[in-house]
């Protein structure tokens, strides 16, 4: 099969960049930081905005910290038992 030739996109006449400034927000983005995360469509449907995503991630972080703390406080017995199926807790 022969590949289709790419069409060059033409700039529309109604676009006017005569007063545009290249890199206008570059320094601010470098200073403040910019993390762009692309969500899959099914995940994006659940979260209306970035605040909702941040809230959900904070809950996950808090939960993971509490799981780590409880595993540490038990002296690692749960991890040892999980790694050895023959060993039983008594």
Largest sheet entry: none
- N-to-C SSE string, H for helix and E for strand: HHHH
Number of separate helices: 4
Structural class by sheet pairing and helices:
mainly alpha
Helix content: 40-55%
Beta-strand percentage range? under 5%
What value does the Rg take, in angstroms? 26 Å
Please give the alpha-carbon distance between the first and last residues. 68 Å
The shape is elongated
Overall description:
- The chain is built from four helices and no strands.
- It has a domain of 42 residues.
- It is elongated, with a radius of gyration of 26 Å.
Summarize this structure as a short list of keywords or feature phrases.
90 residues, mainly alpha, elongated
Topology record:
Blueprint: H1 26-32, H2 41-46, H3 50-73, H4 77-83
Short synopsis of the structure:
This protein has helices at residues 26-32, 41-46, 50-73, 77-83. With 90 residues, it is mainly α.
